[in-house]
Amino acid sequence: MSVFTSSRAVKVLGGIAVASISAIVLAGCTGAATDSESEAPSSEERQELTLNIGTVLPQTGALAFLGPPEEAGVGLAAAEINEAAKGITIDVEYGDSGDPDNKAYETTVPRLLGNDVQALIGAASSGVTKLFLDQAVGAGVITFSPANTSPDFTDWDDNGLYWRTAPSDLLQGEVLGNLIAEDGHQSIGIIYLNDAYGNGLESALTETFEGTGGEVVASESYNAGDTNFSAQVSTIMAQNPDAIAVIGFEETSTIVPSFVNSGFDGANFYFVDGNTSQWGDTMPVSIEGSKGTQPGPVLADDFQDRLKAQWLEQGDGAELADFNYAGESYDAVVLLALASLAANSNEPADIAASLQEVSGGSGDGEKCESFTDCADIILDGGVADYDGYSGGVAFDDAGDPTEATIGVFQYGADNMHSRLD
User: What is the pLDDT of residues 300-347, one digit of tens each?
Assistant: First the structure.
């Protein structure tokens, strides 16, 4: 279990919530060992490194909309690292995580482990990662998720092999709860997916919103694969909430119309990273005015352009429309490559032992914002502190980022969202 100390500050200003977590008290967790004082190898001692990475990201299932930006982020990072020619080459083998229903990961993970990858990038879903993480740990392979947000991973017995660039739902739930309160709502209903992701967010949201003086008048769960939500809708509507928080995935496009058709105002929904997507025509009712949260800072235009070009090259020919967790996916690959350089090794345990250092978590590195600049620092015998597109990261001992940004988005008349400035 983890608790955030009083030094943790969260603000929602101008639509962007920024949190710097300077101290986290951890109980019962295992973290990676770090050795920032180790002597860097000389140029004669340096190996030419190859890092084999396998992705376990959603090409199918309830989170399939997250697959393109995440795979584009991985592909772009690999291409730019290889082009930099700094003594490390990244090979990527792509695989489908699916979801707990279609269980694509049951085929993907054994295939990737059998092909001797040093690291798995994924899954997007916390619930899916829980189903294969022990298998990866048992194989001695790093699991690095760009999107897992369940607080449960902080305490996981992972031998220091689990890392993530997405912040825990303890943060997103706090930001969302404060946002709803600041928008003037005094009572809310919550409908949430009954899994690791949904349970964690529901708990954090409830604690925060009630801490502001608001009341959660009804909180109803549903199971993965459910298609009828009439019972949950009836229970929540009977309590007449000011706003409704929907914590789930693609089934949101069925849940929301059920509420609207029961008389709820489509402008008063609140979404989370799993369903703050560009709904457009796939949402059959208007949600203009509703809001959602997603981890990650504003992505620079040039980065978005590079992602789009990368996806046109490696994807199915469709234009990249969403950028959810693209920065986190890119940074995961860069951090793995930098840790490999710092360790002068492609062994998973050695890479894991250097991840905290290159992220700035040990606090004694030189700031840098690109793979090339950070690699040059390492190759010159220094310690790099990478700040990437997902933010400062700065891993703690449990492999969690201690610096994070949560963006707030609002939907327009076309059911497409834009980030609030």
Answer: 999 999 999 999 999 988 899 889 999 999 999 999 999 999 999 999
Residue 123 near residue 135 (C-beta atoms within 8 A): no
The reply to whether omega before 123 is within 30° of 0 (cis) is: yes
Instruction: Please state the separation of Cα 276 from the chain's center in Å.
Output: 13
Cα dist. 417→67, 133, 277, 284, 410 in Å? 19, 33, 8, 15, 5
Question: What is the C-alpha to C-alpha distance for residues 405 and 258, in angstroms, rounded to an integer?
Answer: 32
- Read off the tokens for 79: 């291409």
Interval 347-405: pLDDT, tens: 999 999 999 999 999 988 999 999 999 999 999 999 999 999 999 999 999 999 998 88
Q: By 3-state DSSP, what share of the chain in percent is helix, strand and coil, each rounded to 5?
A: 35, 25, 40
- Backbone Cα Rg of the chain: 21
Pick the CATH number of 170-294+407-419 from 3.30.380.10, 3.60.9.10, 3.40.50.2300, 3.30.40.10: 3.40.50.2300
Please name every residue paired with 417 in a beta bridge, in sequence order, or none if there are none: 411
pTM for this model (two decimals): 0.82
Neighbours of 5 (CB within 10 A): 10
Q: Which CATH architecture is the domain 2-168+303-405 placed in?
A: 3-Layer(aba) Sandwich (3.40)
In single-letter form, the type of residue at position 82 comes to: N
